[in-house]
LysE family translocator
Amino acid sequence: MTVDLVGFLGVVLVAYVVPGPDFLVVVRSAAEDPSKGRAAALGAQTGLCVHMLAAAAGLSAIATRSPAVYDGIRLLGAAYLVYLGVRAVLAARRAARERRTGNEVTSPAPHEGGPARGRFRSGFSQGFLTNVLNPKAALFFLSVLPQFADGDGSLARQIFLLGLLDVVIGVAYWFALVVIAARLRTLLDRPEVRRRWELTTGWLFIAIGVSVATAA
């Protein structure tokens, strides 16, 4: 198999560096707890594997060519992002009320103090659902990735191998981002900073979700 690996790697790196829903989920999870951030990263890449396998099997082509299926996935993804955003905004408002009433809780952030298994499950599910319900990821494997394949070989096999390389690169990138984002925990120990962080990330989730829902 002969492919343009340099061009492919360039496109993949740009796709990861440009912030999107996955970026926000991983950073927010890592700021709560590094292990939750790594779980979110693994969840996001597992969702990517679903798109990769679907594209290799030809299922993504069927979904993207069916407006009803495509719109259904898009709206589900948008609804999930809005759900995450509303949860964050409500958490911020709850913290503000506790401060005003003198019942402020300065212990760990939501999920941070729970069992390790619960943190992993929460982070993984958020990363997975955010990615697997993103139809743009399916379009990437159908429209962008085949441009770097060798026309003489099996397209499905090449999509699988290039997609696997994409997933591995993503894991390395997300884990590096987790190390950086985890440093936010020191700042988030301050209740007012945490409240503003919850509000900001919450409204960002809502804005992205609305944008996805209204996209043509």
DSSP finds ten helices and no strands in the chain. Residues 105-113 have pLDDT under 50 and may be disordered. Residues 67-101 form the longest helix (35 residues).
